[in-house]
Amino acid sequence: MATGSDLTDTGAAAGQGPGVVLSVDAMGGDRGPAAVVAGLARAAAAHPDVSFILHGDEAALAPLVGRRRALAGRCTIRHAPRVVTMEDRPSQVMRHGEGTSMWSCIESVKQGEATVAVSCGNTGALMAVSMIRLRKLPGVNRPAIACLWPSRNPTGFNVMLDVGADIKAEAPDLLQYATMGASYARNGLGLARPRVGLLNVGTEEHKGRAELKEANEMLAAGAEAGNFSYHGFVEGGDIPGDRVDVIVTDGFTGNIALKTGEGTAKLISDFLREAFNATFLSKIAALLALTSLKRLQKRIDPRRVNGGVFLGLNGTVVKSHGAADATGVAAAIRLAYLLAKSGFQDRLAARVASAGAAGQDAAGLGALNGNLE
Amino acid sequence: MATGSDLTDTGAAAGQGPGVVLSVDAMGGDRGPAAVVAGLARAAAAHPDVSFILHGDEAALAPLVGRRRALAGRCTIRHAPRVVTMEDRPSQVMRHGEGTSMWSCIESVKQGEATVAVSCGNTGALMAVSMIRLRKLPGVNRPAIACLWPSRNPTGFNVMLDVGADIKAEAPDLLQYATMGASYARNGLGLARPRVGLLNVGTEEHKGRAELKEANEMLAAGAEAGNFSYHGFVEGGDIPGDRVDVIVTDGFTGNIALKTGEGTAKLISDFLREAFNATFLSKIAALLALTSLKRLQKRIDPRRVNGGVFLGLNGTVVKSHGAADATGVAAAIRLAYLLAKSGFQDRLAARVASAGAAGQDAAGLGALNGNLE
């Protein structure tokens, strides 16, 4: 059984060479290629060993890139004549997506030219193209999208998955989400042994749907092989809490929780702005408190945690928010850079393989016990 | 087909007499009976025509009530020797709950002594006791718990249901939730024709689970009979938004969304407090902005919207938050008072009955069309 850390030798990974190459889809975001290129320039300035393959309309991209000194000699433009829009159906893009910047972006990871792909485009289409081109990791049934969530934990963040790759998840899928989410938390948040919770409507063992009770037992049994500590059921209030580091749920529930949390945060921040604009005195107060308010804003700014990560494929894909501006794109690029640098993809693959083997051992043992009884 | 408003003659309802009688469970909340009695006193001062039947340990309650002048002559204590705890299983309470303050509280509504019941106790147990004593309204398959959610709408609130009565809901249940939630929004928020949305992971018609696609069609067809305007699918971000007034979902998803929203709001308000305590300057700023911050706090204070309402039973039950203090209890009592005063229970029953009849008509018509085709 594999119980060691994920810090195995991954010298062969693309990200461990002299520099990190990221594949970036320049099109398909709500703010167009200018925001993407501006984000790249910021990331390039922050990380001297990163370079980019940028996919999209060459005529539009060349002048944008040319204007950024930070990108000089570090950004190859790969022409793609077509764009996937937010309205395109994933099934259509999967069949007829060749020639789009999104397809081309994923292709660079498939061909090994780049370690991680980044796109602001249509989530469903991006997952569909990633699935068909990169294929699922051996042993993975359902890939998942993991997001980072502002939390009370010392790292400032929790990991939640799945937030929308698939609307369904059976108990074995939830165990794989736990294994993959824990690996992401080790590599993305630097936690040696992440605490994992299973999202439910109560913390008592008798609560919730049948598949959750089954998953509860599987996660408890699979914690050692997955190198995580299993905490049992958690509730919606624990997603931004400090009880666990990784929250596991199906993509339907996770997506609704994510958007509810974002919507609530936006409502409060708008109300806060209105409150400070209400009177002359409150405007002066806002000026005095500017530094404090900026600190608050930074802690809950959704742009800082921009980047859902697709887990469970033969390649890592970072999905940036469709409405991301330069700050948001730079955050997504930073996340992609960190994951590439840490050799995350190989570690994740190794962890999934060893957890799967441990699961088979356990299943074999269970059958044996069954025979003995 | 019934398309009129809910403002039918309900003169016979208990709440339309000279005064409103509410049945209140004094025990089972996290802060004990003192918080409940303090909340009653506030509500009694605000509403001169309300009186209470208070259920619980008489020896503990008598001195608490005796000390509150506002309650003099307006609060009958009904002794109940036992208390339902937060740890008790609903199934146990359902079988062996007689003699508890919760059981006694529901009994007063069943016997017609009081119009609405209020309890801070164990939600699952309260629903179980309510189900077994009050029984479901004719035609209702799954009762639901509706909550109010701070929103961008002019009323300041949206209605969401189910937030935890049942972890499952089929398409016809979701249609009933829409009908009941719209009736609640008319009577609780004063909206003539509430806009209803069905919670999903996207707004496109092809998205989501099979039962949601089916429910989407049923809600569109049932909008007229239910006297609501159907908006189609909405996302998590619309729960605090202004696109719809009523958000319909199953109790699993609704409960997780509710707790995620509460947890997120709590996280931000704690971060805000920390931000204002960070420096000397920020503390002065907080003092200057006190009125504005209080206004903000009031808009998002969960105690103001304290009270989930059980819909679909032969009697109205308000579930106050377990941790409610006097302010929270007073808010739950106020809600119960408003619903009693408006004759809500009879209106809801009439609406469910007429929507059910319209549904049968439509089904009959469908069968007829089927024959003609």
From TrEMBL, chains A, B:
Pathway: Lipid metabolism; phospholipid metabolism
This protein's record includes keyword Lipid metabolism: yes
Principal location: cytoplasm
Compartment list: Cytoplasm
Keywords assigned: Acyltransferase, Cytoplasm, Lipid biosynthesis, Lipid metabolism, Phospholipid biosynthesis, Phospholipid metabolism, Transferase
Primary enzyme class: transferase
Superkingdom of the organism of origin: Bacteria
InterPro entries reported for this sequence: FA_synthesis (IPR003664), Phospholipid_synth_PlsX-like (IPR012281)
Gene Ontology molecular function terms on file: phosphate:acyl-[acyl carrier protein] acyltransferase activity
E.C. code: 2.3.1.274
Reaction it catalyzes: a fatty acyl-[ACP] + phosphate = an acyl phosphate + holo-[ACP]
Job description of the protein: Catalyzes the reversible formation of acyl-phosphate (acyl-PO(4)) from acyl-[acyl-carrier-protein] (acyl-ACP). This enzyme utilizes acyl-ACP as fatty acyl donor, but not acyl-CoA.
Family membership noted in the UniProt record: Belongs to the PlsX family.
Subunit structure: Homodimer. Probably interacts with PlsY.
Name of this chain's protein: Phosphate acyltransferase
Record lineage: Bacteria, Pseudomonadati, Pseudomonadota, Alphaproteobacteria, Rhodobacterales
Gene this chain is encoded by: plsX
